[in-house]
Write a structure and sequence with these properties.
The complex is a heterodimer of chains A (283) and B (124). In chain A, 41% of the residues lie in helices and 9% in strands. Chain A is mostly helical and 283 residues long. In chain A, β1 (109-111) and β2 (116-118) form a beta hairpin. Classes of the chains: A mainly alpha (283), B mainly alpha (124).
């Protein structure tokens, strides 16, 4: 018995992360190789389905829900808002001329001029304020609906975050990487603890999802976001980041803060080459 | 890996059960200890407190997680009570990268609560 337990604890020790100083390309390669090795039967393109890529029972349930997807009406609402004229007569199309072809695959990107990571949500609100309109709130509601519409038109496009190469872009990337691997909160857990070291394992009755593919399906409709307290189910990626941080009893950062934009940059870059499939449905 | 843990869990649960049934005298010294153990169990199962079931299978608990090893044969794994207590207080001492919550060091549980939880876990 002791022998088994000793072997077990050695296995668990090996599975701990090391934050390396590797280049983004090397990070991406290692990230991919790790998941490929961990879930040998899961094709890489299936990771866009989150936990449903690695757990058959949850997948079957999810596929049933997907027959009448609860996010569909929010795509329509998003379309309506997208096409509505601003007071100046323009509309969102003036800011996103290629929206019909799919544009979400290029987000986030690093803008050298401003020294900032630019997200889709950031550009949605920039479009509003540039046109004299009031910005949407960041986490749910209209921003998630318009995001869902843009994401829907981008379905099937390949995530194509440009590899950070300038010092400023690399600094943002490394900030995000640091966030991903750093322990935080009273519970002292990193993103990686659950979604890199333990995907497929259960935390109580919930199966932890793999970090690879996470950003592909946002904005999402989460059943746990559909209640009188939480809202209508829809939310952005940064809303989810805040929720994760709260779950480990850490103070969440603000949506669209430099911290979360940097995290999105790293997190999405790790999924480069996968297909977009948002909006999507999650538990 | 999951199967492996599950198999161990089953094997050891049976073993532990047999050992318990075979024992004629109670493991505890007195009524005060019994009360602490009962309270420790409550704290261990409480989601807002120890929430041990989030990661560990424990006899008597439902829907356990499997991130950590099942809590069985604890006296053979931790013959010394203090070592088990130290592991619960701050598991980072043994493994800086552990996912286990530093229950004492981060004040998730009070010292008294950790004593009671340790007493309960040591009975498993």
């Amino acid at each position: 018995m002791k022998k088994y337990l000793a072997a077990l604890s050695v296995l668990l020790m090996i599975a701990t992360p090391v934050v390396s100083q590797a280049s983004p390309e090397e990070d991406l390669k290692n990230f991919r190789a790790y998941f490929k090795d961990r879930f040998k039967d899961v094709p890489v393109e299936d990771y866009i389905n989150g936990v449903y890529a690695i757990d058959q029972a949850s997948r079957e349930q999810w596929e049933q829900y997907e027959e009448f997807p609860p996010y569909e009406i929010y795509i329509s609402k998003g379309e309506e808002i997208f096409n509505k004229k601003f007071a100046n007569g323009k509309s969102f199309a003036s800011c996103f001329p290629n929206y019909k072809k799919g544009i979400k695959q290029n987000y986030p990107y690093f803008d050298e001029a401003s020294g900032q990571v630019v997200t889709m949500e950031g550009d949605i609100n920039k479009c509003l304020t540039d046109n004299g309109e009031e910005a949407f709130k960041w986490q749910k509601g209209k921003i998630a609906y318009v995001g869902a519409y843009i994401a829907y038109l981008s379905r099937g496009k390949t995530i194509n975050v440009k590899t950070p190469s300038t010092p400023a872009a690399l600094a943002a990337y490394n900030k995000g990487k640091q966030h991903f691997y750093a322990k935080r909160g009273q519970l002292n857990m990193s993103c990686a603890d659950c979604h890199y070291n333990n995907p497929g394992n259960k935390i109580r009755a919930d199966i932890l999802s793999p970090a690879l593919g996470h950003p592909s399906g946002f904005p999402v409709y989460r059943n746990s976001w559909a209640s009188s307290d939480a809202g209508d189910g829809m939310g952005t990626l940064h809303r989810r980041y805040g929720g994760c941080n709260k779950q480990v009893r850490a103070k969440p950062f603000k949506p669209q803060s430099d911290e979360y934009k940097a995290l999105e940059y790293f997190h999405t870059y790790m999924s480069n080459g996968l297909k977009l499939n948002g909006p999507s449905l999650r538990k | 890996m999951q199967d492996f843990i599950h198999n161990i869990s089953t094997t050891v649960s049976v073993a532990a059960l047999t050992a318990c049934l075979g024992l004629a005298t109670p493991l505890t010294a007195n009524a005060a200890d019994d009360a602490d153990i009962a309270k420790g169990k409550e704290l261990s199962f409480d989601r807002k407190k120890g929430n041990c079931l989030a990661c560990h299978d424990i006899a008597g608990g439902s829907l356990p997680g499997n991130i950590g090893p099942p809590l069985v044969a604890m006296k053979s794994r931790f013959p010394e009570f203090d070592k088990l207590r130290a592991q619960i207080y701050d598991a980072r001492k043994n493994n800086p990268d552990t996912i286990m919550v530093p229950f004492g060091a981060h004040a998730v549980l009070t010292d008294t609560e950790i004593d009671m939880v340790t007493k309960f876990i040591h009975t498993l």
